[in-house]
Amino acid sequence: MAALRSLLPPLEGGVEDLLLPLYQGLTLIALRLAAEKLLVPRLRRALKSRAPAAAAGAGAGAGGRGSDRRAERVVDNAFLVLFIAPLSAWGWWVMLRHNGPCTPSSTRGCLEGWPGHPVTPEFRLWWLSLGGLYAGEMIGTLLGGVGFKLGLDMLIHHVLTVWLMLYAYFGGLHRYGTLATAIFDTSNTFLHAAKALHETGLPSLGLAADALFKLFAAVFFAVRVAMPPFCMLAPGLDYGRVLPPVTYAVTNGLMLSVYVMQLNWFYKIVRIARGGAVEHGAGPKTKAAAAAPPSGAAGALPPPAAAAAGGVKSE
Fold this sequence. Notes:
Elements: H1 2-5, H2 19-50, H3 52-59, H4 65-97, H5 121-142, H6 152-171, H7 174-184, H8 188-199, H9 206-226, H10 228-238, H11 245-275, E1 278-280, E2 283-285, H12 287-290, E3 305-307, E4 311-314
Antiparallel strand pairs: 1-2, 3-4
């Protein structure tokens, strides 16, 4: 136990704080199941009436289950947008207004002065609420796909992300963690909005879905590929020398692991973008379509990108 404990920095928060994201995660699963029960049948009927040929094609050979899955995916992605968008905006507000001298343009204050950084109530509530989203997706997946079902790559991503979040929360690394999380999560909303439009199967929404996917790809490149080396990796390696050696190694090792995943996902996004459009049912298949997870359910955040990432999802 002593060896395991040495992998953690000194605790500054209370373990009981984790009850909040646990309760939020369970509530999220309940809301997701309620949304599926109330909205999926209505949406399936609406999509069949608006695009009968596409719906029939989607359900061919599967007893109509294809159209059911399409409606489920629309609800799934729209549900995630409903929660991810405000969490992302909230994160930027906390980062710019309540994160001390730690912003993308001024990273020295993210780690200098550690471990004396004050924990603001604004940070605490946002951070734990964000953890609730990850908790809901992971618990639902581990229960066999109750409400949420992450692919293996997204489950690994979530484990790494939650470990980083706990490390930051209990180790006084909240300034650095707030900066990284707010930046990474920026692209998520655009991805799930594009996927929600695509999954309707309506040709009239194809161009909008492609436009949103291209916007997602551009934002993903900016916040997950271009910015991290300057805003996260370099500051962690340089200013992070104030940390104890083990904390320094674990923090930077986890951050580098997460960044490598972003590069892998961006490679897949580029392959999707270069592939162009192909025929799909009664209308064009959008690039957002290619980003749809093979399991039929997206991961969630941030980050990060689970659709092009073996589904591209940014959670």
